[in-house]
Design goal:
238 residues, alpha+beta, six-stranded antiparallel β-sheet, 16% helix
């Protein structure tokens, strides 16, 4: 059921740093592979139904990163999101997530609360009726309250990418707190601050950059430190 990340046909149309970016979703090979993936998932769901296991089977469909749009054949486009796999922008870290939990989740329901992969461990424990192990999932928070239609307290989300990637990305870190997201590039300590508003991909994004000669302290590398940022300009897309 695995779909290859990089069918080889290059027709990008934009630019991210030194990398070309596909702007049009027209890669026939990628589309065919996604169709096969969709068909395989359908067969799996049908088999579970046929065996009478639907009521006690939870399905989670997700990805380990955003679409591959900046390298290795550029098979997909993430517009209106910026960037792709290997980048700290929303096109690189915003992923598909569909959960089917019979008797709990409602078909067609949508939750817009942000989650991160470290949330899966406590979520799966709670789904299975097992005790949580806080010492093992300190960076995660169970999604079960969200799946039940409620709310869930969640602190900032963090990303740490201290290396160079073959998709064009460079050493970088990011933190999101509410609607604010701060990105810091480790090569020159350049920072970019964004606010997404309430409609991702469609709202205008406020962006700020500053260059520091010394590494950031604990007090000035959080979204609350934005008042000290330098020149600002407006960009659409995170």
């Amino acid at each position: 059921m695995n779909a290859s990340e990089a069918p080889r046909r290059r027709k990008p149309g934009g630019q991210e740093g030194q990398s070309k970016v596909r702007l049009v979703q027209n890669h026939a090979a990628c589309a065919a592979m996604l169709e096969q993936l969709d068909s395989a998932i359908g067969k799996l769901l049908a088999a579970v139904d046929r065996l009478g296991l639907t009521g006690r089977t939870i399905f989670i469909f997700t990805s380990d990163n955003g679409g591959l749009s900046t390298a290795e054949g550029h098979p997909t486009s993430n517009l209106p999101l910026r960037g792709g796999k290997g980048w700290p922008y929303e096109g690189g870290i915003r992923e598909p997530l569909i959960i089917r939990w019979p008797g709990v989740t409602k078909p067609g329901s949508i939750c817009d609360a942000p989650i991160i992969s470290t949330d899966y461990y406590p979520t799966l424990l709670q789904m299975a009726g097992l005790p949580l192990r806080p010492e093992q999932h300190q960076d995660g928070a169970s999604m079960v309250p969200l799946l039940n239609g409620g709310d869930r307290p969640r602190g900032p989300l963090f990303w740490h990418y201290p290396h160079y990637g073959n998709q064009g990305g460079r050493p970088v870190g990011a933190v999101r707190n509410g609607d604010y997201k701060l990105i810091e590039w480790y090569e020159d300590m350049r920072v970019e601050l964004y606010t997404s508003g309430t409609t991702w991909g469609k709202s205008m994004i406020s962006r700020r950059k500053s260059r520091r000669k010394s590494p950031p302290s604990e007090n000035n590398c959080t979204p609350g430190a934005t008042r000290s940022s330098g020149d600002a300009d407006a960009k659409s897309g995170l």
